[in-house]
Design a protein that fits this description.
The complex is a heterodimer of chains A (553) and B (338).
Chain A: E1 27-28, E2 35-38, E3 48-49, E4 56-57, E5 62-65, E6 74-75, E7 80-89, E8 97-105, H1 124-133, H2 146-149, E9 158-164, H3 174-181, H4 183-197, E10 199-207, H5 211-224, E11 229-234, H6 243-251, E12 266-270, H7 271-283, E13 289-296, E14 302-307, H8 312-319, E15 327-330, E16 337-338, E17 352-356, H9 375-379, H10 386-394, H11 398-403, H12 414-418, H13 425-487, H14 489-495, H15 497-519, H16 526-546
Parallel strand pairs in A: 1-14, 9-10, 9-12, 10-11, 13-17
Antiparallel strand pairs in A: 2-8, 3-5, 4-7, 5-6, 7-8, 13-14, 15-16, 15-17
Helix pairs in contact in A: 3-5, 4-5, 4-7, 10-13
Chain B: H1 13-35, H2 38-60, H3 65-69, H4 73-84, H5 91-106, H6 119-130, E1 138-139, H7 146-153, E2 164-165, H8 168-177, H9 182-185, H10 199-215, H11 222-241, H12 249-254, H13 258-265, H14 276-296, H15 303-320
Helix pairs in contact in B: 1-4, 1-10, 2-4, 2-5, 4-5, 4-6, 5-6, 6-15, 10-13, 11-13, 11-14, 14-15
Classes of the chains: A alpha/beta (553), B mainly alpha (338).
Chain lengths: 553, 338
Amino acid sequence: MLSKLFSFNGGVKPDPNKSLSTREPIARLALPPQLVIPLHQHIGGTPRPLVSVGDKVLRGQRIGAADGNVSSAVHAPTSGHVVAIEPRPMPHASGLSSPAVVIEPDGQDIAIEREPFDWHAAAPGEIRDFLRDAGVVGLGGAVFPSHLKLNPGKSGHTDTLVINGAECEPFITCDDMLMRAEPGNILRGALIMQRMLAAKQVLVALEDNKPEAAVALKAAAQALGHASLEVVVVPTRYPAGGAKQLIRVLTGIEVPHGSRSTDFGVQCFNVATALAVWRALEHGEPLTRRIVTVTGNVERPRNFDVAIGTPISHLFAAAGLKPDTDKLIMGGPMMGIPLPNIDAPVVKATNCLLASSPTLFAPPEPELPCIRCGECARACPADLQPFELYWHSRARNFGRAQEYKLFDCIECGCCAYVCPSHIPLVDYYRYAKSEIWARERDKDAADSARERFEFRNWRADREKEEKAAKLAARNAAKPAVKPTDGAGDAATAADDPKKALIEAAMARARAQKEAVAAKNTDALTPAQQAQIDVAEERRKRASALSGSDAPAE
Amino acid sequence: MYNSPYLRQNTSVRRVMVTVLVAMLPAIALQVWLFGIGLLLQIAIASATALACEAAMLSLRRRPVARALGDGSALVTAWLIAVCLPPLLPWWMIVIGTSFAIVIGKHLYGGLGQNPFNPAMLAYCVLIISFPALMSQWPGLQGSDAATQLDWVLGGERVLDAVTGATPLDALRTGLLGNADVSAVMQSAAFGHLGGAGWEWVALAWGAGGLLLLALRIITWHIPVAFLGAMSLVSGVAWLIDPSHHASPAFHLLAGGTMLGAFFIATDPVSGATTPRGKLIFAAGIALIAWLIRAFGAYPDGIAFAVLLLNICVPLIDIKTQPPVFGHKVEPPEGGTR
């Protein structure tokens, strides 16, 4: 039994607003006329499309293959025809498009024949490959490929596997409703994960504002009867559901920015991910559906079981979007991203669709100067000094911002939530981070250009040196050859016709030179001619004495 | 287009400032009850001056006037100046002090949030250096009627010693300089139960207001605790060593501006230290220097000078006391970092 819970500093307690969407059970949403399935829905490489326009696809058929190991496959949620493979608008604040497979359902929903896979007998590596090809990624929002995390690492074991059902953001209830609906299968998935990670204990954690889910999970845990499996209820405080905060609450371990929790013997998965693992391995079902909370400024807020690729407009139509809606948000009110396009599809990361109105979330009041009151520092779950980060980000003093650990900021929004000066603090941090990234990219580009230039200069210098060295070696080799000449003169001359040719050419050159020299002394007086003759005589004598071929020089 | 978080707590600078003003009310009420209505007049003059200077500076700096006036920060400065000064100062001194605080102490540095020095303490220091005699005239306990007090503040004839007298700290200093010992000096009527007749109750009212600020999370415990703790410690050690020349810790806690300083002056977030450890160092430093000035300096009370001196140290204190960031508190295990 877990005897003691820890606590993290900071955090805030906004009104949870969760009861809005928990009154009705999860509803299975009818298929839309067209499904837009983005190929890239996770951290890592973009899958290659496996189908072409006009192909018939079946439910569960792989339509995009994982691009390398740091990637994940995508599948058709129903049977139908591929009508297009083209860039479509994504549920992203930028509103940019990304390649997607567009499927028109045929209404028959025929499943593809499943290849049998006995995970009980399979090696961990095979299970990981299977999960990659089943498209299982983290469903808490980060969509990191799960198979990469289901690896105990070098030590070969893990102390604690955390199954995260905390769901701390206001308004979001998809995990809550899933835990109420399928507690047993979530725990079965968790036990598979435990086996793959060789984890000593499994802690399924949820906030104390979900008593129904806690009761359901505890009953299911008792039915399974695993001593190492425990359901832990933690105090409600945003952001208790952040992986690092939850690990801190459960184990007291603080995983620093840039480190992996596995290095500290802990691994963390969302409850929906555990269920996806169970469905993939036990039933061979790839990840093609998820639970999405539709709430906020809608007539009938509730949770829907949705085929991935369903247009967001389809969900809002089912929930009854109110006319005074001024903004659509994917995610919760603390960390959600604004959606510029209502026709963008539901993706694996879509946990909540939140309609905003001016009365629900008032537009921010005008920003006032920071009075250094320190509320933000008291609210920060990463123990940062947000007002210092703000100060340096605003002054574009990015080096100092990094010294104050800008990149440890998890952008949870607690600081901006409590700020009495209504400063959009997180926007300043996002701006500073993107500027720093841009500068690093520029610097990398400049560095590699400089390296190329320096290498080029170095190569030119090296070639020059090599040439000089070769020349020096040749010059040094000449006298070294001489002494051998006397011994093997005849043999060399006979063996080497090339050498004979060179001798002949040199003799010709000598003769020519002499002839030229004679020409230049045509009109000479007899006295001059006599002088020249004497000099020639001397030279010939000197040549004969030294025995060298000096006149050729 | 704006980004997350879309949810905001219902809070504002105005709410913070108004809470501070409300927390000042018990001490102001008690002081008026015990010493007369001079203080109310001072508060009115200081508030009007502060708002006028704030509006003038904002329009000169081409900033939105109405929004900044509404934040209440100028009123807090004005009220703090008024309660620091002797309640019967002539009106023009309050105007000089307040305009110095707002114009030079605040806006020349860039306005709200930018000033390195506590504006109210700047005003106090400017006045005590410029007008030391007037600044030492404090009214006695119920020593004058309202009409006299109004007349004094508005510039009437000042008959010294009829209405005012030295503060207990001043009397103590003068007495000790005249080679009397502490217990003999404290026989005089100016000294009440602990701090000085009447003033100890006002000091306790400042403490009560401060506890309200603590309860409402406007301030944290660090500065008051370190301030009062350090003041007790240094005065206690001196008192134990030589009780004939040093007053007791209880006297130091309740006399002069100790309580006001601990809960309302040193807790100014803009000019004070911001990290938890930094706040402890900052407040203890103020208490130490204030006590040194009281015990050995040329002025009867030294909190204003001590605050300004420590204000200059804030950037260094903050840099040197940064709390460890999440995950960086202990060395990661072997191979834990990338």
